[in-house]
Amino acid sequence: MTTPSSDTEMHSPKNAAEQFAQRSHSPVQRIQHVLHSHPSISPLLVLIIASIVFTIINPRLASPANISLILQQVAVIAALAVGQTLIILTAGIDLSVGAITILAMLVMANFAANNGVPAVLALIIGFAVGTLCGWLNGALITRLKLPPFIATLGTLSIFTALGLLYSGGKSLQANDLPDLLNWTGKTIGIGGFRITIGVIMVILLALVVAFLLGQTGWGRHVYAVGDNTEGARLAGIRVNRVLVSVYLVAGLIYGITAWILIGRAGTASPNAIVDANLETITAVVIGGTSLFGGRGAIVGTILGALIIGVFRSGLSLAGVDDQWRVLAIGVLIIVAVSIDQWIRKVKV
Amino acid sequence: MSAPVKHYSTAAVDTREPVLKARGLIKTFGRVVGLDGVDLDLYPGEVLAIIGDNGAGKSTLVKALTGALTVDSGEIFLDGHPANFRTPMDARNAGIETVYQTLAVAPALDIASNLYLGREEKRPGPLGSIFRMLDKKGMKDKAGASMAELGVGTIQNMGQAVETLSGGQRQAVAVARAAAFATKFVVLDEPTAALGVKETGQVLNLIRKIKAKGMPIILISHNMPNVFEVADRIHIARLGGCAGIITPQSHTPTEAVAIMTGATTLQKG
């Protein structure tokens, strides 16, 4: 061995590389390592610090009523962001998330209100529309080999237009709709908290998707495809099938979220959730999921959505202009992606 | 044999039944001849190196053997049985594992996940069959055992992300994966091309360990010293055909290069 090595290690059969690997790390490197293995720590810290700071500024932030409100406000974005996380994990992006949700919502509302279809069937048709839209995105990406950004930019316009054409631009109010469709807005009082069925559904949805990602072979394949597509293919993973399934599952999630949105908004309007695309991507990115794919988790996305909610509520309770929230979210995005770039360069 | 004799072997004629026997493989790409009637034998427990200049047909040969492309004509026998692979998965299912030079691992996944990538094992009982839960612990333990068997002792933690490993260690993961799942033979396609000298040494050690387990290996390489260090026989690809089969004992690396480039022609044995 020609590499110089310290004499104290000469008795062991370890080579220079191992000695190098066992060198002591600087505190900054240790932080980098911890973040590398647990990327959800940074959004968790941001959430805790933001909650403490905003509570000090205005203690009403932490009141059960306000916490309930924040949860209701972020529920829809959090649910959509769960679907967006799946897609971003494969190094894709979905710009049509809002358009699919609105189309599915308008279809289920109109079927129930105007076509005399039983509410359950109308819901299922709505879910099916979301799933079909997701499948179309997946098909465009895998069969026509379109970059996800372009495919979903196209379908964003297509689905938005279809929604407007189908509904004639008209909204349906809650009292036009059967109870089942409004059920997700029903609140359950737990202590001073008022939790909606929609919030509970989002939590269940997040748990199911987190289980699929973390515990099943499908989840592992999703990570592998985003991490190294060619390597995944060489390992025998049917990459295109995984990709289509991801867009399809995301579409189903958007369809279910359409139902949650009706309950939250008390209306089925073609002009709902206009910011959904950017807000879901923001929640995913702040939550520590890498836009380059293969890295991230549902828990981070939920934390990301909560951070957006706490900033919105906290800054509004602090009585500052809403533009400060927009500015703060912008800073958070840049910080989050910078941290991601940094921890990806981790060395042992 | 009815086909014209092309087997110019100067190595001792092996009477054992080859694990892999390829006869008269022909593959053309339009007017370009990729394989010009190539024969190849891989015997049990040996390291067969395939060397050749760029365009000599060694990649085409390997792709034909591992199902990555189908030949126009010719036959492949696996343990004496005809085997015509249409896809790489066919070859894999038949017990042939290939390691590619482009470090085909998922860097963000841990070592155990990479070892079992594409063939994850589920938990026993309803947790596996209904909930599709992965047997993470079982896979981790078995991955650790596979790595230890190959003497890759530097990797203690199977839960460590592959991206935290050096290039040589990553390639060791890929080679260990191939060795753990191959039942017939392992193909290593330029496994050291992206590695430094020391890391190359680690991979060569792995090759010796796999050979010691009795697993035959086909090694494709540009690197003469590496080939002469580990190969039992050397198949020299040239102009879509085979310029000869030599052994590290019968020829020097310089002679091998001369045969490879056509400066010398091997005497028919």
What is the domain tally of chain A? 1
Quantity of strands of chain B, as a count: 10
CATH evolutionary superfamily of the domain at 1-95 and 182-269 in chain B: P-loop containing nucleotide triphosphate hydrolases
Termini gap of chain B:
17 Å
What does this structure look like?
The complex is a heterodimer of chains A (348) and B (269). With 348 residues, chain A is mainly alpha-helical. Chain A has one domain (38-54, 62-343): ABC transporter involved in vitamin B12 uptake, BtuC (Orthogonal Bundle), CATH 1.10.3470. Helix content of chain A is 70%, strand content 3%. Chain A has 15 helices and 4 strands. A two-stranded antiparallel sheet of chain A has the order 1-4. A two-stranded antiparallel ribbon of chain A has the order 2-3. In chain A, strand 2 (187-190) and strand 3 form a beta hairpin. The two termini of chain A are 21 Å apart. The relative contact order of chain A is 0.18. With 269 residues, chain B is α/β, with parallel strands linked by helices. Chain B has a domain at 1-95 and 182-269: Rossmann fold, CATH 3.40.50.300. Chain B has 9 helices and 10 strands. The interface between A and B is medium-sized, with 31 and 31 residues.
